Amino acid sequence: MSRIFKNGLSLKTQVYGLIIVISVISFVARVITDVETTRDYLQTQMGSHAQDTATSLGLSISPYLDDESLMIAQTMATAIFDSGYYKEIKFTNSQNAVVFDLENPKRVESVPNWFIALCRLNAPTMQSELNSGWIMAGVLEVTSHTGQSYLTLWEHTKRSFYGSFLLLIASLAVAFLILRAVFKPLKAVENQAHLVTRKRFTLNEEIPVARELRTVTKAINNMVINLQSTFDSLTKQTQALTEEVYIDSLTGLGNRKSFENHFNSVVDTITTDAPITAMMITLPSLANINQTVSYQDGDEHVNDVSIILKKIIGDLTNSKIFRLNGSTFIALAPFDEVFLNRTRLEITDAFSQKKNSLHVNGFANFALISVEKGSSIGGVLSELDTGSTIGTKVSLDKVDKDTLFSVKQWRTLIQSIIDSGDVSFSVQPVKRANSQNKQCYFEVFAHFIHNGEKVNNGHLFAMAEKLNLTEELDKKLIRNFVNIKEQYPNDVFALNVSKASLYSTDFIQWLTLYAHTKPIIKTNLIFELHEISLLYNVHIASMHIDAIKDIGIGVCVEHFGTSLTSFRYLQGLDIEYVKIDGSYIQDLLDNTQSQFFIQTVNNICHGFGIKVLACLIEKPETLKILENLGCDGVQGNLIMSPSKIIKESGNNTNKEFTFCADTLKFCN
Q1: Domain 256-394 CATH superfamily
Q2: How far apart are alpha carbons 455 and 461 in whole angstroms?
Q3: Is the dihedral of CA 533, 536, 540, 542 positive or negative?
């Protein structure tokens, strides 16, 4: 019922309801009026009939009122009384003595008692004074019997009810047919408006006949056309800028500028729990192929390497590949060197299989190093270049053995975490732009604990994805976070959800059922989805996002722009926020292209009713530019660093989570 009041009754329901109510009221009023009219008529008729009988019978028996002829008078009265239309005929002489009294208490059995009680008829008693000569002989009283009147009224009521009911049904049927023809185009307009609210812009080809609906339909169609035109124009401009500034035209990978932006956005976030490894792949035979064969064959060689890297490194969660120049590729992966043993093995195996006589200096060289926090791009590239030139010797047997062992251990570890592991949480606010203490939401960071130690999230989810256990990890994360959410029902939190869960029908079904068990997750909760995950299959992702929204959970697309593809996929996605990738924020002060990109994103998203967020803000100057560019929310260490939510335990009772949302800080 509350949902009906929240969403409102449809016009169709209101009109149908109004017509049905009016029709039923008219039907009831008609039947009641008809019955009352007939009842009044029968009441009057009984009185008139009793009076006529009293008068005519009195005149007939007046000559026979003496003692000798009284029997004749009684016989005449009995003959009339036996017709059944009278309840009582009584003659009283001048001495007030009853001479004869004929009574008929019988009721009509074919009339229901409830009807008799509902439609009460009062039988009138009429009198006639009888004279014997000039002397008054007595008074004759005649009372009509109500039985026949009740029977007449009952039969008339049934005919009136059935006739009125058939007329009601016929009227409602005609009204339904007419209203269906009227509401059909109105339903199309409603569907079109509903799709617009979900960022799906479609044209209504059926123009209604009704002038008002025709005007509304044309207005919405024009709005959709204008929005689509603006969206297409802005996306073309942005795509052209992205391709020119950030994309390598041959491979479609990010170029050196894109690498520098991404490197700067992650180098200061490196910790022991979140390492970064850089991999460089160089093509020592490319120059020889270009000179001795053709540049076309050289491009094919570059594309071969690009395909290998996309296939192998592209499967690593949140890893990115770039082409720095003609013969150099570089990749950044959020894992340590040990974890990348299998990846290193797969790359070297793939390179060895591709080598042929054209590759006089080898198919490709491979180097890999760990990136330290605060490292410079020049230092990392120099170290990688040295390693690539010298060459990397890898013991394949040792790598394979260690990796296989770790896979078995990872399966056991992940299953143990799912079954009985602990989860700790920290949050970082996403503050509304140009606001002091108001938040869009609090982003939640989860840390899985095993045997009292934190597990590297990047490694954990990467292995869970390989072992098809990511969905179960997400379920555990949500179940554990509900305990915190129940403490702060009015605060908005955002949880990161994996690609596997986004595309899992089983996960959506589980989430729907779990929301009925824990209604707290139906409000003030947002799922953050990585753009790369979303682009895997936009159609299925859109359907599952709709299902998530139906539960009551909002959606934010994070790392927006990291795919370096067109933003056209935004059309049709029912999301609340996009969070711009940090690579566009780091050099914002000096990079006009990044400023133009962010401004264009704001124009596009605001046209769809989507709010734009910016993250990794470290400088006040950057914050000011982002607010001037129109961003709706900001996040970063400048605003507030991530802070852990701690649940303290007393001697006998557990204290609440130490979280002070209103003051944008945490308290002990």
Answers
A1: Reverse transcriptase/Diguanylate cyclase domain (3.30.70.270)
A2: 10
A3: positive
The full DSSP string for 447-501 is: EEEETTEE--HHHHHHHHHHTT-HHHHHHHHHHHHHHHHTT-TTS-EEEE--HHH
pTM of full prediction above 0.85: no
Each residue's pLDDT tens digit, 297-330: 999 999 999 999 999 998 788 889 999 988 899 9
Kind of pairing between the strands at 328-333 and 320-325: antiparallel
The CATH number of domain 9-170 is 3.30.70: no
Q: Where are the domains of the chain?
A: 9-170, 256-394, 425-663
Query: Are 657 and 647 spatial neighbours (Cβ–Cβ below 8 Å)?
Result: yes
DSSP H stretches of helix in 2-86: 2-7, 11-61, 70-81
Would you say 437 and 663 are in contact if contact means Cβ atoms under 8 Å apart? yes
In contact, 101 and 28? CB cutoff 8 Å: no
Distance from chain centroid for Cα 140: 84
Q: Are 474 and 496 in contact (CB under 8 A)?
A: no
Which CATH superfamily groups domain 425-663?
A: EAL domain (3.20.20.450)
User: E-assigned strands of 109-205?
Assistant: 125-132, 135-144
Residue 657 pLDDT greater than 60, yes or no: no
Nearest to 421, CA basis, from 477, 377, 461: 477
Work out the burial of residue 109: count CB atoms within 10 Å of its CB; fewer than 13 is exposed, 13-18 middle, 19 or more buried: exposed
322: β partners: 254, 330
- Interval 156-197: pLDDT, tens: 888 989 988 999 899 889 988 888 887 777 778 778 777 777
535 and 508 Cβ atoms separated by less than 8 Å? no
Strand duo 453-454 + 647-649: pairing: unpaired
